[in-house]
Specification:
Largest sheet: 7 strands, antiparallel
Helix content: 10-25%
Oligomer: single chain
Radius of gyration: 29 Å
Number of strands: 24
Distance between the termini: 63 Å
Length: about 375
């Protein structure tokens, strides 16, 4: 009987030891994850200020800002924790040993402006009130577009022959050859039904993969926007609404594209392993720094979409080994981060978020 009691006590002691060991393993693993994610000098609390971005705030807490979804705490009553406002308070807390950012709304984020719009002009018309509510201040952006939008490539990637077969500017109403906003001109071609607003394009670059020389896409460079005023057969009269540069006779007209450049980006890691290269720099430059735009030889077919963050690496130089008399390629070195802002089937446009060295054609991209 005594032996059975001793065995039972031994088993209970073993269970306690195993439980304690398991808890310690979880705490150690949690600490390792926290050390991997968090900056050593991270604040415990941060008050959101006007002019902040999510990228900036995440950079205060995290070693890698694009990983902020891993520490964002979803609070009851807050539908979108990515939408935060000046005056909101962010606190670093730990849940089951894992770091989380806890969001507490400030007064500006909770206070709503009530707007009542009424229609009606005389006593016989029925008044129809329409109520709209919105926060007192605008939410801070994920990434500020003010500093980078001027670098964005203006245009789209099309199939071979798309521009050659598109309607074109035939002549100006006032016999001009170059047009500006407000000018009227005639276009000729096969017009789609129910479309009145067209983009004005001309041929841009032909993008080739520098690795295998495959054609990845044909650039239709956007130069303006025009509205159709009237149409008779294959001839139509247009008014030019806006320009990126001078619009000319023979420029092509394409219906406005449903795919638009989204105003807000939420950086995220790629869905799969990526290896590619920078095949061009925006505006024909040979190199670019922070906030500059680049063209990549990977796109939607590799799972890239707007917001995807990639690491950019400087390709290692080839040096001569003076001992063995051989030429040796040095390892690539990571120099920064690129975020996709527009993706096509075989290629994508990206913006340089961070870099400690100019990005050039031929630099390599991979998962961060």
């Amino acid at each position: 009987m005594g032996n059975c009691s001793a065995i039972k006590e031994g088993i209970l002691l073993m269970i306690r030891i195993l439980r304690w060991s398991f808890v310690m393993i979880l705490l150690t693993f949690g600490q390792l994850q926290a050390d991997e994610l968090l900056r050593p000098d991270h604040p415990d609390r941060y008050m959101v200020k006007k002019g902040d971005t999510l990228w900036h705030i995440a950079s205060l807490f995290l070693k890698q800002a694009w990983r902020w979804p891993q520490i964002w705490e979803l609070n009851p009553g807050i539908e979108n924790p990515h939408l935060i406002y000046p005056g909101d308070s962010l606190s670093l807390i730990f849940v089951d040993g894992q770091p989380r950012l806890d969001l507490r709304r400030g007064d500006d984020g909770r206070t709503l402006v009530l707007t009542v719009n009424r229609t009606g002009g005389n006593d016989l018309e029925k008044l129809l009130p329409r109520v709209r509510t919105e926060p007192l201040v605008s939410g801070i952006p994920a990434i500020s577009l003010e500093d980078v939008s001027s670098w964005f490539a203006q245009g789209r990637i099309v199939e071979k022959g798309t521009l050659a077969n598109a309607p074109y500017i035939l002549a100006g109403v006032s016999e001009r050859l170059i047009f500006g906003p407000g000018d009227k001109f005639y276009g000729r071609g096969n017009w789609p039904d129910l479309t009145t607003v067209f983009g004005v394009f001309r041929e841009g670059q032909i993008y080739r993969d520098i690795e295998n020389k495959e054609i990845l896409g044909y650039e239709a460079q956007a130069v303006g926007m025009a509205r159709m005023l009237s149409r008779e057969g294959d001839l139509a009269t247009f008014e030019l609404l806006s320009v990126e540069e001078d619009v000319r006779v023979t420029d092509r007209l394409l219906p406005t594209e449903e795919r638009k450049l989204q105003p807000t980006f939420y950086p995220k890691p790629p869905e799969q392993r990526i290896h590619g290269v920078v095949i061009a720099i925006s505006k024909g430059l040979s190199m670019v720094g922070k906030n500059g735009a680049v063209v990549l030889n990977r796109g939607e077919s590799q799972g890239l979409s707007a917001g995807t963050v990639l690491a950019v690496h400087k390709k290692g130089q080839v040096v001569r080994d003076r001992v063995k008399g051989e030429r040796v390629e040095l390892p690539s070195e990571r120099v920064g981060l690129i975020m996709i802002y527009r993706s096509f089937m075989k290629m994508a446009y990206g913006i340089v978020l961070e870099t400690n060295s100019p990005v050039r054609v031929g630099d390599e991209i991979s998962q961060p």
